[in-house]
Amino acid sequence: MSAPTRRSNKGVSPFTIVGVVLLVVGLACLGWVGYQIFGTNIVSEKAFDTERTELRTEWGQSTKADPGGKKKPKSGTEDEEPTAIEGEVTALLRIPAFGDDYEIPILEGVTPATLNDGVGHYPGTDNPGEIGNFAIAGHRITHGQPFAKLLSLQAGDSVVVETREAIYTYVLDDAPKDLTVKDTATWVVDAVPGKTDVEPTEALITLTTCQDLFRSPDRSVGFGHLDTTQNK
After folding, report:
1. What is the mean pLDDT of the chain?
2. Among 4, 62, 108, 122, which has the minimal tally of Cβ within 10 Å of its Cβ?
């Protein structure tokens, strides 16, 4: 008669527990990275579509209500500019070098939440077509990555900004890949970039994005000037 088999009283090895924990953490990290790279793009691209559609609908309704095409100030005074609202969509951005289907909403502000829904207009900088500096920022990767190809632009490339009143075509004077600054370099959004105390005499545009693919303190910057204005 054979001896009965003895069951092991040993519990789960600590090394096994550590291994399982590391595996779970690793999979969670991969899932997070995957969502950041792919998932946020899907969410933001849907937001882009919604913002574009709603803005064009608003323009159409405003034109019917105000055939003259001049949006009246909300305050009721004739000379006062309407107050910009964080996250409000005010214009559309097209860059011909990025293809015919490239059209991104431009929103007021550059907070992370705002940049998730489009390109952001730096508070305090001038409006499209105005004398001064119309400065905008956008993600180079994740959240729709509207400026994914910004560093491929060259001097002479066009940047088109459409508002309710007009279509403004800017021409780049500097390639974004040629200038990198720290995110604290606020001179790039001055009315005359780098010349804080100089009164602007022409309409300019500044485009900024992260120099590296992921978040970093370095910014790639491109400057341009207004070339043509087509009133609507």
Report:
1. 83
2. 4
Domains and their CATH numbers in the chain: 35-68+86-231 (2.40.260.10)
Q: Report how far residue 119's alpha carbon sits from residue 104's, in angstroms, rounded to the nearest whole number.
A: 7
Cα dihedral angle (174, 211, 209, 192), rounded to 10 degrees? -40
**CA dist., res. 4 & res. 166, Å (int):** 91
Q: Is the pTM of this model over 0.85?
A: no
CB atoms within 10 A of CB 139: 24
Q: Mention every residue, 6+ apart, whose C-beta is less than 8 A from residue 111.
A: 86, 87, 120
- Runs of H (alpha helix) within the chain: 14-34, 40-65, 112-115
Integer Cα distance of 139 and 26 in angstroms: 26
Give 222's Cβ-side CA count (13 Å radius). 29
The mean pLDDT value for 97-111 works out to 96
Cα dihedral 169/40/117/115 (nearest 10) = -80
Per residue in 170-213, pLDDT (tens digit) is 999 999 999 999 999 999 999 999 998 899 999 999 999 998 76
- Here the tokens at position 34 are 């995957």
Q: What does each C-alpha distance from 89 to 50, 126, 148, 151 come to in angstroms?
A: 11, 15, 21, 25
Among residues 178, 157, 160, which one has the least CA distance to residue 169?
A: 160
**CB 90 within 8 Å of CB 51:** no
| CA–CA gap between residue 7 and residue 114 (Å, rounded) | 62
